[in-house]
Specification:
Immunoglobulin-like; Rossmann fold; 3 domains; alpha/beta; six-stranded mixed β-sheet; TIM Barrel
């Protein structure tokens, strides 16, 4: 009987058969209606399978740094479950700031385990949009301004998540570099900037990371919306990069059936259709790839070639996720997960300034610590848009500092300023009420008094997850710190010279008080373990090793998008009220081209507040003289640079060796230098290690738009090695034949 049974297992359910055969078999059994049903949402976060054939539905979830709480089937409101809280991991800016590829893999694996435990099939992240302006409300979800760093950090994250049988959806493809006008803008960028800056992280994600899905963006490029875009999806992604995975729309990014059919979209979510006006029982039937698609096929307006391609991609995804019998069960909030969250936080925190070594806090001398500032007590896992979380716990900075220092010193708190006292965003309630009705002067005076009589002062401020701060859907209104924090910081600096400013943010900010303050720490949004990671660095239990993944300009005008480019859009069109709706889109031209971030600052010799790649340590490092294994290379050769890094201080620590390439003579304008290699080295006091970084001609190439090809021009190059983009320690010249 058993042999008879095995014979009747259809090919699509037979694990011993190759996947492409199983996909073909499943496809051949599906009706037209079943195929179309797979292409669009059936609820806020799920899409249909084929119940008749036992092919399960897909469940997606936000977000890039934690698994979102359950929402109702048809609405954004919380479902009110009691078993959907999770670990909040540090935001991706913090992960990127570790410059540690292994850390990224561990992060992805832990996050994927939680998504899997929550029975999710597609995780809507990571985000890799390039940091073009510090006003972008969503920069905290991304990995900074450099395409090479982002590419190298995103690949292990994807591999970690997908090792759980959960797909990543790398987003937002492409050119969604600001939140203002994200639904109503058309981005104009030259091909060179597109290929050199904005596309590489996506290309790495799909060609090296094999991300099983990719999410289209909201903006337009060449007059077509990115989630239904011939150029981005068909020509580049599925053409040049030969992508075989699934293109998911951003929620509500689709608005045209014909373009969605023909221009490379596979799975439609969140469309703002007009509900039930078509008289059907189900609003999802009104989606662009639903009944309207079926009608076009049945009336002969379109064939089924695209349909079969889309369904083939979805079935391939199913065999990796929903129908993968070998995937692990996952876990949530395990000790491992807490440890990963804490360690990423410790390694991602950047020590920006540390005059007279005021940090780490010396408990032999410090007996009273004043903690001041709203962000010491404000939850940051709630808010900010789609990445808002319902965390099992969030250790606040004040809690972390008290638990680390409280046994040996007295820790006291004063508010200092009132910023955003609210506690509810997107229907998630933090449970906090931070209202304080006292006047700003009274609140400030209390803080200054406390600072005067304490041995050490820690100010915890920065931005938050409220609208117009670090939040989806809107951009920041200005580059300065909000809520008059500058005034508070200056007053505290006068009151006590043992003073550290901790900035909780996902973005650069102006620092008019920089000369008054001895120590500055960029602490990012660190999730569940935020307070513990921060306290660990302040105490010196963890030696800071984070490096900035983007430049901090002195003022907004020093940023190229604000000096040259158009932000938030074309000035004349802005004045004429364009961008208010999709009928009147606004154009945004990236006049700065390839000169973004440090590429701009270096080339134009504009001194930043803090440079890309900058980050201090509690120990010191020496770089030996770099040597190359050859002086001349051919077009198909590799070249390896070798140098020693030594810990010359008294504390174990890690240094990030960064390799930049400078093209000494080029037929096209090129940045002064570009990051093409990095290695994080862990060293005990007195220990030295040899570091080797190998590159090939890809590291020397620029994109030639006329030839539509990457070109490495023969001539002289220089490898520049250092520990930040503005601190080069050793150089080696070589020639490309």
């Amino acid at each position: 009987a058993s042999t008879a049974q095995t014979k009747t297992v259809p090919i699509y359910l037979d694990d011993s058969k190759p996947v492409d055969q199983r996909v073909k078999d499943a496809l051949s059994r599906m009706t037209l209606e079943e195929k179309v049903a797979m292409l669009h949402a059936q609820s806020k976060f799920s899409s249909a399978g084929v119940p008749r054939l036992g092919i399960p539905e897909f469940w997606t979830t936000d977000g890039p740094h934690g698994v979102r709480a359950e929402v109702k089937w048809d609405e954004w409101d919380q479902a009110g479950w009691t078993n959907d809280s999770i670990i909040a991991y540090p935001a991706l800016t913090a992960l990127s700031a570790t410059w540690n590829k292994n850390m990224s893999r561990n992060y992805g694996k832990a996050l994927g385990e939680e998504a899997r435990y929550r029975k999710k099939d597609i995780l809507l992240g990571p985000g890799v949009n390039i940091y073009r302006t510090p006003l972008n409300g969503r920069n905290f979800e991304y990995m900074g301004e450099d395409p090479f760093l982002t590419s190298k950090m995103v690949v292990p994250y994807i591999q970690g998540v997908q090792s759980n049988g959960v797909a990543t959806s790398v987003k937002h493809y492409a050119l969604n570099n600001q939140e203002m006008f994200r639904h109503t803008s058309n981005v104009k960028v030259d091909d060179r900037a597109l290929y050199e800056l904005y596309l590489p992280p996506f290309k790495a994600a799909v060609t090296e990371g094999d991300s099983w899905t990719i999410m289209g963006a909201y903006d337009m490029y060449k007059g077509q919306y990115a989630s239904q875009n011939q150029y981005l999806l068909n020509d580049i992604l599925k053409g040049e990069w030969n992508y075989k995975g699934v293109v998911v729309s951003d929620w509500g990014a689709v608005n045209n059936t014909e373009q969605a059919i023909k221009n490379g979209l596979d799975l439609e979510f969140g469309s703002w259709t007009n509900g039930l006006s078509a008289g059907t029982k189900n609003a999802y039937d009104n989606y662009y790839l639903a009944q309207p698609y079926l009608d076009m096929i049945k009336s002969g307006k379109v064939g089924t070639k695209e349909l079969d391609d889309k369904v083939t991609r979805l079935l391939n995804l199913a065999y990796k996720t929903t129908m993968n019998k070998n995937k692990p069960f996952g876990s949530v909030a395990s000790e491992d997960h807490r440890a990963v969250a804490k360690q990423v936080g410790e390694e991602g925190i950047v020590l920006l300034k540390n005059q007279n070594n005021v940090l780490p806090i010396d408990l032999t001398k410090v007996k009273t610590i004043a903690v001041i500032g709203e962000n010491a007590i404000k939850m940051m896992t709630v808010g900010g848009g789609s990445s808002s979380l319902k965390a099992k716990y969030e250790t606040l900075p004040l809690d972390g500092i008290k638990s680390r220092f409280g046994k040996e010193a007295e820790v006291t708190y004063a508010r200092g300023y009132v910023g955003d006292p609210g506690g509810e965003y997107n229907g998630v309630k933090s449970g906090q009420d931070l209202k304080d009705d006292r006047s700003a002067d009274v609140i400030l005076n209390e803080a200054v008094e406390l600072a005067r009589k304490s041995d050490f002062v820690i100010f915890v401020g920065g931005l938050n997850k409220a609208d117009y701060q670090d939040a989806e859907g809107v951009d920041r209104k200005s580059y300065g710190l909000p809520y008059n924090q500058d005034r508070v910081i200056s007053a505290l600096a006068k009151a006590n010279k043992n003073f550290a400013v901790v900035l909780v943010s996902g973005n650069a900010v102006a620092m008019p008080w920089i000369k008054e303050v001895p120590a500055i720490v960029e602490s990012w949004y660190l999730g569940s373990e935020a307070g513990n990671s921060l306290a660990s660095v302040l105490a010196g239990d963890a030696n800071p090793s984070g490096k900035l993944p983007f430049t901090f300009p002195v003022k907004l005008e020093d940023n190229s998008a604000h000096q040259l480019g158009e932000y938030p859009g074309n000035k004349e069109e802005l004045a004429a009220g364009k961008g208010k709706d999709q009928k009147n889109p606004i154009n945004i031209t990236y006049n700065e081209g390839i000169f973004v971030g440090y590429r701009w600052h270096d080339t134009k010799k504009i001194k930043p507040l803090f440079s890309f790649g900058h980050g201090l340590s509690y120990t010191t490092f020496d770089f030996g003289k770099a040597k190359a294994d050859k002086t001349t290379i051919g077009q198909d050769d590799k070249i390896t640079f070798t140098f020693m890094v030594k810990n010359t201080g008294k504390k174990a620590g890690a240094e990030v060796a960064q390799l930049y390439i400078s093209d000494l003579k080029s037929s096209l304008p090129r940045p002064t230098k570009e990051l093409k290699g990095f290695e994080k080295v862990f060293l005990n006091p007195g220990e030295e290690k040899e570091v080797s970084i190998t590159i090939d001609k890809a590291a020397l190439s620029f994109f030639d738009a006329d030839k539509h090809a990457w070109v490495a021009e023969p001539g002289d190059f220089e490898a520049l090695i250092g520990n930040s983009s503005d601190n080069i320690k050793t150089k080696v010249k070589f020639t490309l034949k």
